[in-house]
Amino acid sequence: MCRYYAHSFVCKHVTFSFASFCHPASMIQTRCGERQIWQTIRMEEACEECKPWFAETHMRRPRK
Asked: Which domain of life is it from (predicted)?
């Protein structure tokens, strides 16, 4: 299974970014098609598709 990073947005959407080949796939430099999540990165904003629907007030952090 090839490794991927998962990006988890506040809108609950998840995107995947390729990280590295698994051993069998590295020989031919072609992704094997199976995903193993290497690490999940939590994003503090909505994805590009949802940004227009999220009000700015939901996106801002409270001031101290």
From this structure: Eukaryota
Asked if residue 12 belongs to a domain, the reply is: yes
List pLDDT tens digits, range 8-26: 999 999 999 999 998 888 8
Distance of alpha carbon 61 from alpha carbon 64, whole angstroms:
9
Q: Domain for residue 64, yes or no?
A: no
- Residue 38 belongs to some domain of the structure: yes
H-state helical runs in 5-55: 23-28
Look up the pTM and report it: 0.70
